[in-house]
Amino acid sequence: MWPQPLGTAAGALLSIVLLDTSIFAVDVGWRLAFGLGAILGLGILIIRRFVPESPRWLFIHGRDEEADALVADIGPRSSTPPRRPWPGA
Question: What pTM, to 2 d.p., does this model score?
Fold first, then answer.
């Protein structure tokens, strides 16, 4: 919920600095802003390769065993106590 608005705000503030003609020349600032966006995009693509899909996505795409293994791996590391089963379940 918070990362996207914070990233957008940080990008807007950074663009104010990069496009300030008293800091960077007119023909340099926009190139720096454009290049920084490309670098951040590549960074996201690289990091994304190491982030697992959600169990819901895995179930929807027929990868049930992988989803069960992911949930089983997360469960023991969780600091939240297990929930009681539904009545009548």
Answer: 0.55
